[in-house]
Amino acid sequence: MCPIYFRFEHSTFNSVTFIMPQKKNQLFIVLGFIFLTNAIIAEFIGAKIFSVEKTLGISPMNLKWGQQLFNLDMTAGVILWPFVFILTDIVNEYFGKQGVKKLSYLTVFMLVYSFIMVRIAMNLKGADFWIGSSQNQGISNMTNAFNSVFGQGLMIILGSLVAFLVGQITDAFIFTKIKERTQNKMVWLRATGSTAISQFIDSYVVLIIAFYFGGNYSLEWVLQVGTINYIYKLGMAVVLLPLLYVIHYGIDKYLEEPAKD
After folding, report:
1. Alpha helices (H) in the chain, listed in sequence order
2. 59: number of CA atoms within 13 Å, CB side?
3. How far apart, in Å, are the Cα atoms of 220 and each of 48, 225, 227, 235?
């Protein structure tokens, strides 16, 4: 009986060691696709500045900032970034800082690729019927509309890429340090702590590079929009903490499932 028992244990061990890396690879691929999709969408819609008050159907707040009055204006891309940073924490939790770095570098590469492809598309000559196809919607020239929507300036692209990469690396570093100090306890602390610092950097760097150095926007406006963006991101990081625990629970259950024949 002993040889049979040994072979069974040995076979089971091989099965487990084979299935677990396969499951983690599949997990990394799924998380990577979700992460990459959110990051690319956030970059492209980030050129739009929207009014929170108008969106909610309320009166402008007319906040006093220095000598000027400002309202709650944010970049549209900020809506998705809290989910991107949750994914960053999840990747860091199961794949470490190196996993976050690899995913971040890949995302930057794909963003650069996306911007290049968009630039090529902008330089293609529009078909005559297409150029005037939306005049009944108030758009006289579709080529100009297309280029206006997708034609983000070089400084906006540069600011987005720099802010993203710096924010991601900072988040991964702080997350790892807090995890080590707390001995793998208090998920909420390392998640909110890393997000609070990394999002502070991300919120201002992109706007300073893109709109202050690259545009005609005042520093007061940049700081105002950056502050509102940061408050939103930090608030969402706290609100989404239960989701973080649910995702943790689901992933742990997935990785612990026995191999199926």
Report:
1. 2-45, 52-56, 81-122, 128-131, 142-150, 154-181, 187-207, 219-239, 241-256
2. 3
3. 19, 9, 10, 22
Write down the domain spans for the chain.
13-256
Q: What letter does residue 64 receive in the DSSP assignment?
A: E
* Non-local CB neighbours of 173 within 8 Å, separated by 6+ positions: 97
Residues 6+ apart with CB under 8 A from 69: 62, 63
181-184-185 Cα angle (round to 5):
95
Report the C-alpha gap between 3 and 50 in whole angstroms.
70
- Three-state SS at 182: coil
pLDDT tens, 77-133? 888 888 888 898 899 999 998 999 999 999 999 999 998 998 999 999 999 999 999
